[in-house]
Every structure is written in C-alpha cells, then in structure tokens.
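TICKET: design request
STATUS: open
ATTACHED STRUCTURE:
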C-alpha cells in the first residue's frame, strides 16, 4: 500500500514566511542551494558509494554515513551529510552515479549536523523529512557546533515507527531509547534484512552525547532489543563498512563487559576523573580505548553524564 501524506502546506507556509521576512528586512536571502557557489570548507572530500545489498547503498565520506535505497519509482535517503552546499552537491552527485530517480523521502536518524545537514535543501524541494517526535523536540534546542546551522523540524514525525513504501522497496523507521542522543531512530529495510543505524552503531565502542540526552544504558537496551529483529547487516553511522550480525553479537557482548566494568569501578568509589583511565579495555580490541576516543567520552560534561548513569 502506498502511504499517503499531507505534506507541503506547512513547509511551504514556513518558507514563504521566512522569505517575506527577509525581503522586508532588505538583504536577499541566500539561495538554499547555489550550484555555482565555491566550496565552503577545506574539509570537503569526495564521497564514496558502496553497495551493501542490491539496490541499497551506503555513502561514505565527510560527515556521517548516509544510506540510500533505490526503488522503481524513486529513492529513499537516510541522513544527509554535513551541512553545506558543497556537501549537498556532492551528496546528489554520488546518488546520481547510481540512479536518476527522484528523492522521495529523507529519514533523519538524529540531530547532529553530520547527519541532519542539508535537510533544509530537501525540505525546500518538497521532499518529506521523517524523524521521531523526540527529534522534533530536540532539534529546536540541541547544541549546534560552531559554524553549522540548526537543522529544521521534520515534515513528518512519529512516536514509535513510520513506514514508507515505494515500488519494490519498503523502509520502516523506529524510534529507539535515548542512546547516542535523545533523538535517535533507526531505519529498517525488511526485504534486505538490513538496518541503517545512524550513530546508534559505530565500529567499536559506541559514542554517547550526554549533553544532548544520550544514554549509554539506552544504547545497551537498544542493542538488546535489536536482537529480536530479523536482520543480517547493520550500517553504522561512521566507518567505511557494514557490520554483520555475527560482528554485532561480538560488539554487544563487549559493551556489556565495558558497562559492567565501569559500574564496578563507580561502585568501588573510583573518582570520576580516574574512571576512564582505570577501566580495562585493552582486551576489547581496536576502537574500544574510550579514554582516547576523541572528546566523545572525555569531555568533562559528558563524563558527568556517564558517571551519573552508572551511579544509579
Ligand atoms: Zn551523531
């Protein structure tokens, strides 16, 4: 069954209102997408298209992984890379190397701009943005990194799940417990037994944005519930390769071990500042050295969140 949507009216009203306001204030608004604009950042890199299953692709490159499914009558996109016309241009170029069909839906897995970037361009083009109710709430308040723009509200939001169907392709988004952020969802392609995980899955240890409502224990709960789904492949939010079910099983056990070790250290009264250095991770393998994992675990406010979770 083709789902029917009532979209466009609200989005168009918003665009018109913004345009009117800008005109009234004098300066012309910057085009949503200017194909002739020079690159905005030196971090730009060509994106690489990788086929995961027939008709399903991951887009690896600057920004988080995007995923797209090509149906007979259009394309379903999951996440939209870093914000910026150059990223948007490269995203579309990469998709067009595989299909010239129109983008029909864009799912957004969470608010971070390396995944929710370029949603303004799709929204302005009338493509429905689909995200969880939690995303809709958090997108108004999340911490935007310097130099990046706040992403817009979704066109369609859902409490638990939302399914779209094109000819030959179905995708269902599920809202999940707060994990990487308080806005996470995953997107399941049942016929391909594949789940686009957004940043609720990384190669190695998960990363958690406690400041934006993420929860390590929520990640653990989600991964336990994921076991009940019929899948054989996961597409992580970063990293260049999909993850098999067997690899996921191993990763999930490692997370359980890590959390148990952290809990024991907290219970033993280990000072917050010593927690990450003291927890044993060297037997967990590459990607689990959380004390050296950028600022994802070590930034003081994030460490506060971790410690608070484990103290309960
Ligand atoms: Zn993220």
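STATUS: resolved
RESOLUTION: sequence designed for all positions
ATTACHED SEQUENCE:
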């Amino acid at each position: 069954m083709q789902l029917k949507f009532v979209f466009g009216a609200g989005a168009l009203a918003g665009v018109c209102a913004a345009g009117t306001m800008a005109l009234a204030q004098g300066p012309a608004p910057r085009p949503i997408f200017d194909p002739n604009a020079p690159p905005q950042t030196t971090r730009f890199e060509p994106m690489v298209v990788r086929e995961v299953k027939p008709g399903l692709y991951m887009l690896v490159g600057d920004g988080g992984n995007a995923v797209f499914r090509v149906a007979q009558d259009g394309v379903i996109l999951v996440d939209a890379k870093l914000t910026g016309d150059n990223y948007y241009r490269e995203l579309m170029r990469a998709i067009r190397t595989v299909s010239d069909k129109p983008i029909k839906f864009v799912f957004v897995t969470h608010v971070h701009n390396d995944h929710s970037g370029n949603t303004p361009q799709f929204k302005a083009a009338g493509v429905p943005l689909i995200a969880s109710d939690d995303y809709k709430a958090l997108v108004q308040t999340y911490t935007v990194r310097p130099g990046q723009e706040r992403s817009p509200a979704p066109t369609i939001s859902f409490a638990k799940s939302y399914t779209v169907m094109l000819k030959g392709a179905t995708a269902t988004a599920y809202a999940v417990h707060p994990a990487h952020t308080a806005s996470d969802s995953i997107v399941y392609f049942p016929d391909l037994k594949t789940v686009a995980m957004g940043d609720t899955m990384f190669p190695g240890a998960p990363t958690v944005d406690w400041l934006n409502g993420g929860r390590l224990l929520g990640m653990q709960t989600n991964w336990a519930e994921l076991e009940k789904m019929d899948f054989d492949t996961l597409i992580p939010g970063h990293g260049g390769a999909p993850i098999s079910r067997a690899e996921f099983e191993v990763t999930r056990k490692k997370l359980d071990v890590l959390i148990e070790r952290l809990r024991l250290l907290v219970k033993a009264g280990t000072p917050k500042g010593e927690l990450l250095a003291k927890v044993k991770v060297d037997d967990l393998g590459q990607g689990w050295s959380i004390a050296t994992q950028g600022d994802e675990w070590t930034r003081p406010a994030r460490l506060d969140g971790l410690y608070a979770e484990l103290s309960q």
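CLOSING REMARK: DSSP finds nine helices and 13 strands in the chain. The pocket of zinc ion is lined by residues 110, 112, 115, 180, 199 (CB under 6 Å).
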